[in-house]
């Protein structure tokens, strides 16, 4: 799922080489941290957080097949 977040983020930002994704996995949950360049933060969050919500929705639906709870944090 980290690769999915990386793929989506790199398609949205101006500096795709500065996209960093880290995964922390527990028994039943996964925390994905997304870091981008400060200039690209607005592109990832979007107006009123719509793009961030969409990224989280796509990742949660992909995680539903694996029976894990996923949280995407934009740092």
Automatic annotation (TrEMBL):
Function comment: A probable RNA chaperone. Forms a complex with KhpB which binds to cellular RNA and controls its expression. Plays a role in peptidoglycan (PG) homeostasis and cell length regulation.
Gene that this sequence comes from: khpA
Quaternary structure (record): Forms a complex with KhpB.
SUPFAM superfamilies xrefs: Prokaryotic type KH domain (KH-domain type II)
Residues in coiled coil: none
InterPro entries with a match to the protein in the record: KH_dom-like_a/b (IPR015946), KH_sf_prok-type (IPR009019), KhpA (IPR020627)
Cell location: Cytoplasm
GO CC field: cytoplasm
Keywords: Cell shape, Cell wall biogenesis/degradation, Chaperone, Cytoplasm, RNA-binding
Protein name: RNA-binding protein KhpA
GO BP of this protein: cell wall organization; peptidoglycan biosynthetic process; regulation of cell shape
Taxonomic path: Bacteria, Bacillati, Bacillota, Clostridia, Thermoanaerobacterales
Family note: Belongs to the KhpA RNA-binding protein family.
